[in-house]
C-alpha cells in the first residue's frame, strides 16, 4: 500500500513507540522524583510529525490502562493492567498511534501511575500531576462509578497545581488542555447528562479553577465492560467484541469524542508540538521539578507549556543567530587582509543579518526578552563596551587586545596576514634600494640621497597598499624596521669611508714631494758619407 509522503509512514513504522508502550518517565530509586528514560526520549524526539498528548490520570485499579488500550487499537492489552495492591504502572508510559482522521497527526496516549499508590509520598503525586497537566492536550481524569468526595479530593490537588501553572498563563486559551472527567463502571442511572451532574456536584472553587486551567471541560460516563467481578481479572485477554454491548456502544462515542478533541496539535505562534518539542519539554520539566525538590509551592512556579516553548524558541533563535554571524565571519576569512574599517563594516552587516535571523526564529518571545537576545548576540560577536572607537579609519580600534568575542580571531588573523603581506610587499619594493646600498662603490653618495630613495619607495608601496589591510601593518612595520636603520648606517659608514679615503689621499699628496718625470737619453746616429 502506498504511503503518503507527508504522513511519515516509513519513519513511524520503524519507531518502537508505535509498536508497544514504552516508559517515558520512571520513579527514582527512592520513589520521590521522576527520571527520563533515555531510549524512549530518543524515540519520541525522532517523530517529526505534530503530536497530541492524551493522558489518563486517576487512582490505581480503576481501568485507566484498559481505556487507553482501547483508544489505541480496540485492544484490551498493551498498557499493563493491575489487579493487585501493587501498582502495575509506575511513572508515565506512552504509546503512539496515527490520528484516525488525519495520518499527519500522531496521538500520544499516556498512562500514568495511580495517584493513591500505597507508601508513596504526596509530593511525588504532585510531581506526576503537574508534569501530566503541563504536557497534555487532552487530560482524562478517571474515577469509578460516581463523583464522590474521594474523587473530588484528588481532583483538588490536580486543580491546585494546574491553576497555578496553566490558569495564570496569559497565553491564548487555545494552548490550554481539554479536561474530561471519565466515570468508569457507571451502573447508576444519572438524573441528567454527565457534564451537568458534574457541575452540580463540584464546589464553586473547583469549577472556577477548571475554567481558568482548561480550554474546555466535560464529563463522560462508561458502563462496566463485563458483568461479573471475576471477569475483570481477565479483561486484558478478551477481545473488544467480547465486552458488553452497551459498553462497546458507549466506547464508540467516547472514542469519537476524544479523537475530535485531539484533531489539532497545539501551536505556539508558528511552533507546532512535534516529538522533538514534546521530548524537550518533558526533559526540562523533570529537571526543573527536581531542582525545586518536589515542593508544591515551588512546582506551581514552573512555567506553562507556552512559556517554556517560548524559552526554547528563544534559545534556538540565539543559536541560529550566532550560526548566521559565524557563517559570515567564516566567509570573510579568505578575503583577508582587509582594512579595519572594512572588517567593521562586514561585522556590522553580519550582525544585522543575524538579528533578522533571531527575529524570524524567536516565536512567542516578548519584546523585552527579544531585546535581551540581541544584546547576547552583540556580546557574543563583539564586546563593544571595551572599545573606545570603531571609526572609519584604519586606526579605529584603540587596542586590538581590548576586543573580545567572535570577531577577535578575525582581527588576529587579519593582523597576521597583514604583517606577512606588508613584509613581502616592502621586500619586493625595497630590493633595488637595498642593492644600491650593498653595491661597491655605494650607489648613494650621501645619507640624503638614500633617505630620498627610501621615501620614494615608501610612497610607491603605500599607494599600492591603499585600502587594504596591509597599509596600517606596513606603517607599523616601517616605523620599527631594523633593516632601514641598518642600511642607513651602512650608507653612512660607506660615505664616511669614502670621505676618509679621499682625505687620506689628499694628505698624502701634500706631504710627499712631487716625483720628477723620468729623463730621456739622446742617441746619436752616425751616417756614412
Task: Please explain how this structure is put together.
The chain is α/β, with parallel strands linked by helices. The chain has 3 domains: 9-303, P-loop containing nucleotide triphosphate hydrolases (Rossmann fold, 3-Layer(aba) Sandwich), CATH 3.40.50; 313-406, no CATH class; 418-506, no CATH class. 51% of the residues lie in helices and 10% in strands. The protein has 17 helices and 10 strands. The strands form 2 sheets. The protein has an 8-stranded mixed β-sheet with strand order 2-1-4-5-3-6-7-8, with helices on both faces. It has a two-stranded antiparallel sheet with strand order 9-10. Helix 5 (149-167) links the parallel strand 6 (138-144) and strand 7. The longest helix is centred in the last third of the chain and has 31 residues, at 408-438. The chain is rod-shaped, with a radius of gyration of 43 Å. Mean pLDDT is 81; it is low at 1-5, 82-86 and 385-401.
Name its key features:
17 helices; Rossmann fold; alpha/beta; rod-shaped; eight-stranded mixed β-sheet; two-stranded antiparallel sheet; disordered N terminus
